[in-house]
Specification:
Two copies of one chain form a homodimer. By secondary structure, chain A is α+β, with helices and mostly antiparallel strands. Chain A is built from twelve helices and ten strands. Chain A has three domains: 75 residues, Orthogonal Bundle (Arc Repressor Mutant, subunit A); 134 residues, Beta-Lactamase, CATH 3.30.450; 94 residues, 2-Layer Sandwich (Enolase-like, domain 1), CATH 3.30.390. In chain A, 46% of the residues lie in helices and 18% in strands. In chain A, a hairpin with a 4-residue loop joins strand 5 and strand 6. In chain A, helix 1 crosses helix 4. The radius of gyration of chain A is 27 Å and the shape is elongated. The structure holds a DNA duplex.
DNA sequence: TGTTAGCACTCTTTTGTTTTGAGTGCTAAC
DNA sequence: GTTAGCACTCAAAACAAAAGAGTGCTAACA
């Protein structure tokens, strides 16, 4: 079902204008602003065709036209002008990014802020998923005889530490033993391969003090599991409230509740991210009630071969896809390069003989 | 300006009903539901008096009455029935609290969720302010020659750790030196007393490697400063959107933007918390534009003598003060006792000879 | 003197009606 | 194939009328 070039142009004009003005667009308007060489009557004929073909819909018999999901889809896939992040924007983004280099999660949040800020929509991301990464080593550091710090280090040198408070004192030898057994049993495994069973083996190996170590091992186990759970980050939660499609509080509430529902968001991101490729989901193409009237642009960022995360932008169907897509592409690209060479980042670098 | 007992009763009836129904309350309604022994005409006279005295206002000439800020104030200070957290609620709260004991910040978030859930309003808290607490010690742990873990331990055994990635390798002696100097210079000081000057002294003491350590020291300094900054936690962000006072999106948006504005929230909490005492701020009694039409119940929780945080609930003037106050009192009380004896908490406890 | 029935009056809310205007589809002419 | 012209449609705005909740005031009552 190839559209004539003129139909394509007119469809594009409708989508562009609807994205800009959020009002059904009529024949006269298109004639005036996009095709002065044509009369409104001609455009009217074309619009009627496009409607019949399913690219446009009317809100009532005598209204202007609004893009259907198919209309948006066609627009995104072949009509829209690829928006190039402009030089100034690149400069601004870079400046923002370079100024604020801290830890990975802080950095991801910062990137999200930029995404939300530059698109004026709501940006979402998961923290990186370490479950496919391997555990390099486990440290247990005694702060004093009542306080131990548990430290997990992954192959990507990501560190997770949690304090453990004890009821009765322990001594150095005990901790050294524990540490050595933990490392021989767990170091080198990928996080998702570490199960209760490993801990049973560990408990056995530690022999005598069976009861004593149960709690501490439980804690180690749950901390490892926490590295598997990825957090949800949000930015620009309230950005959409200014848009006409959210002038109804009930709708606004539904949206806000959706984005604060970690479980649903996790699922949505998971179901709609497509490996390395940026993906655009329009309306409820996916038959997900929650996404009714909402569109999603999702992409993946990469910390290492096995450690990746998902980030995206959510907004009304009527969003500036071009801008959103190019921003996300640019930002995820930058997380990838930055993260992969993080050890060389200028802020934390130290050289003993500097 | 003492009110007659009858006037007090009528004022209480108005506030109670307005809190419940969110509609201006009229004389007949009060007569029927609260004072069947009086006629609506009598009540009308009393209402007119209360209005003249400033306790009530009308929304238009022939409307029912709504409490003024003075009306709410009087209600909160002397009229309302103190709500007692019921046995079931106590049980529920306790169960929720006891089930989910993890780290302090996780715990505070959990308490906030309970506060927001039981009041159906928005709950806010700051993380504990450590600036008045003392730094017990500083650890630098080598994970490998390129990765160091910085660990700060406070007198309350709160631990903050941050990984440092190095560009070129360092050796054990260097780290040992650094650690020893850091500890002799900084351990024992309260966090807010640690300044750039201390770090100048440290750099001097380390002598030769002046340039080399600059970055790492900078990082230690900024991490210490981060312990001074307290985070803002939120729960129940969207709870208010169901209320009639937020049926206007613009208002809802303003509110949501306010609670996501960390700087403003920090300031509001700071300006309105009153040491140990629970404080109720009604409307913009404090002349803060942002709090227009909003009320705030704030209290303090205590981790140790010098380490405290602020938590509160924010909602429309028309809130169930009684319930909110008693919930907050109960919850902050519980953080206090729990935090102060945290080392004995059952979940993480371990005993070598258990 | 405090209370209350009664009534006129006010103002919002609801409901219904009319007008306006943007936009369409169709027809006939170019 | 394009376009001018016109009748028609429908939402939104503007206006009008009616309903209803509530007040204040007056005059009578206990």
């Amino acid at each position: 079902m190839e559209l004539s070039e003129r139909k394509q142009k007119i469809l594009k004009a409708v989508v562009d204008d609807y994205i800009t003005f959020a009002e059904p667009v009529g024949s006269t308007h298109i004639a005036k602003n996009h095709h002065p060489e044509l009369s409104s009557a001609t455009i009217r004929n074309e619009l009627a065709d496009l409607e019949e073909l399913g690219y446009l819909v009317k809100t009532h018999t005598s209204s202007g036209r609004v893009p259907s999901e198919l209309g948006y889809r066609t627009y995104v896939d072949s009509l829209m002008k690829k928006y190039m992040v402009s030089m100034e924007e690149v400069a601004r983004l870079k400046a923002e990014m370079e100024h604020k280099i801290k830890e990975l999660d802080y950095y991801i949040k910062e990137v999200l802020n930029i995404a939300a800020g530059s698109t004026n929509l709501t940006a979402i991301a998961t923290s990186p998923d370490f479950s496919g990464g391997t555990l390099k080593k486990i440290e247990l550091m005694m702060l004093d005889s009542f306080n131990i710090l548990l430290i997990l280090v992954t192959e990507t040198d990501t560190v997770k530490s949690r304090p453990i408070k004890l009821k009765s004192p322990v001594d150095f030898d005990f901790i050294a033993d524990l540490k050595s057994v933990l490392n021989t049993q767990l170091a080198g495994l990928t996080l998702d391969k570490i199960t209760k069973q490993n801990f049973e083996v560990i408990t056995e190996q530690l022999g005598g003090n069976y009861e004593a170590v149960a709690n501490i091992l439980e804690f180690v186990y749950s901390t490892i599991n926490e590295m598997n759970e990825n957090e949800i980050y949000l930015s620009g939660e309230t950005n959409l409230l200014g848009l006409p499609e959210f002038k109804d509080v009930a709708k606004a509430k539904k949206f806000l509740e959706l984005i604060h529902d970690e479980k649903k968001i996790r699922e949505i991101l998971k179901n709609n991210s497509k490996g390395n490729v940026l993906n655009v989901v329009i309306g409820n193409e996916q038959d997900n009630e929650d996404l009714d009237q909402l569109s999603l642009v999702v992409t993946t960022y990469k910390i290492s071969e096995n450690v990746t995360g998902v980030m995206g932008v959510i907004g009304p169907n009527r969003m500036d896809y071009s801008k959103v897509i190019s921003s996300l592409e640019y930002l995820s690209e930058n997380i990838n390069t930055l993260a992969l060479k993080a050890p060389e980042n200028d802020n934390n670098e130290v050289n003993k003989n500097g």
